[in-house]
Amino acid sequence: MLGLANEIQDWIKSLPIFTRYWFGGTVLFSLLGRFSILYYYWLILTWDTFISRFQIWRPVTALFYYPIGFHFLVMLYYLYNYSVRLEKGVFDGRPADYLFMLIFNWLLAVFVALFLQFWHLAYMSVLMNPMVMSVVYVWCQINKDYIINFWFGTQFKAMYLPWVLFAYSLIIKYDGVGELCGILIGHIYFFLMFKYPQDFGGPSLLSTPDILYSWFPS
Asked: Fewer CB within 10 A of the end CB, N or C, for the chain?
C-alpha cells in the first residue's frame, strides 16, 4: 500500500502545475459532494444563490464539483489528457498564458451558465463539461490534422473530436448543452487568440495580464 501511495504521489507531482490542481480539485470536491461531507447544493452554480444571495464561492466550486458516475470518469480522462497536452505543448514554458486561457474560458462558462438559467433555456449548474470541452476544442484546433484513435477502432482527424463528444453526450445522456457551450467557449478563445491575428492579419484581441507573468514567469 505504501508503494502504491508513493507511485500515485509521484504521478501527481509529474503533472504540470495547473492540470495538477484542476485535476486534484475536481477529484477532491466531487468526492466531498459524493459522500455528503459537503452538501452538493452548496457547490453548484445557480442564478438565485449567486446573484440574489451573493454566494460568491459558487463559480469556483461549480468548476471543481461534478456528480460522480461514468460520465464523470470520461470527463476526468479528457481533462487530464488534453490539459496535459496543451500545458506541455503549445503552452510549454508559458504558464501565465495557460492560466489566462483557463481563467478566460472559466469566466465565459460562468456567464453562459447564468445566462441560460436566467432565460430558462437550460439548467447548467456545474462547469466541468464546458471547461473540459473548451480545452479539448483548443487543442484539436491547434492539432486539427492529428489522427485520433477513438472507441471501437474508429479514427478521424482531431478537429472532429469535440463534435463526436457532443454527439455522444446527446445520444447517451440526451443532453449536450455543456459540451456545446464548451465548443463555443473554446472557439471564442481560439479565434481571438490565434485565428484572427494569424489568419486574418488583425491585432491580437487577447493578451495575458502582466500580473500573471509576474506570478508565473516564463
From this structure: N
> Which set of grid coordinates corresponds to residue 201?
492579419
Tally of residues, the chain? 218
Grid cell, residue 174, equals 440526451
Q: How far apart are CA 46 and CA 117, in angstroms?
A: 7
Between CA 64 and CA 128 the distance in angstroms is 7
pLDDT digits (tens, 9 = 90+) for 124-155: 999 999 999 999 999 999 999 999 998 878 89
Please, where are the H alpha helices in the chain? Answer: 2-14, 17-34, 47, 58-64, 70-88, 95-118, 128-142, 161-173, 177-190, 196-199, 210-215
Amino acid at 62: A
Q: Rounded distance, CA 146 to CA 28, Å?
A: 33
Alpha carbons 66 and 27: distance in angstroms, whole number: 9
Q: Where are the beta strands (DSSP E) in the chain?
A: 147-149, 155-157
How many whole angstroms separate alpha carbon 95 and alpha carbon 15? Answer: 13
Relative to beta strand 155-157, strand 147-149 is: antiparallel
CA-to-CA distance for 86 and 176, rounded, in angstroms? Answer: 24
What gap in Å lies between CA 180 and CA 164, rounded to an integer? 11
pTM for this model (two decimals): 0.95
φ/ψ bin of 159: left (φ > 0), alpha (ψ from -120 to 50), beta (otherwise): alpha
